[in-house]
Specification:
Rossmann fold; single chain; alpha/beta; 198 residues
Length: 198
Amino acid sequence: MRIVCAGMRRSGSTWLYNLVRLALNAKGCFEDNWRISVPANVVKTHKFSPIFLFGADKVVLSHRDLRDVAASAVRRRLIESTPAATVRYLLRALLDEYQTWVPFAAYDMNFERMMADKAAEAQAIFAALGIDAVPEVVCGLVEHLPVATKETDQEILLAPNHFTGGAIGGYVDTLPVKTTKAIESVFGDWLKQKGYMR
């Protein structure tokens, strides 16, 4: 079975990828190493490309409160915490790495729901993909994956500074108020649709 694990950066996409990879006991890789001719695999990607739809059996996706996506990127030093930098980053995350995948997704993982109950979220993912695996066992395997200390492992895909320790709603402690307001102004409709804002 070939599975594409897509979704916006900083939204649990690597957790999703490793969960599916380990549940299938399949080879995994990042987008630049994926080949249609190679059997087995689970690929992780972000930016939409139709090439990943050819030969893929299913696509799974992930999303997260955009304010926390921005905060996580700031903590990882991928972007500055200015309104302009965060809005630009989130436009790419939402349009190129999420919305374009939605019509093709067999399942759309909510980061916050996953953090609240990993086994329950894994069960829902397995059901959507037709995978016969014990959620608690596979989640345990994912939780014990080694995080790279120097270079990112080319199959596990966990970078040395992958985890930033951000809690749900942690944007309050990371982003300046003016940046949060800018995100809410530009992306308010989406945040409300997903239940992140009233």
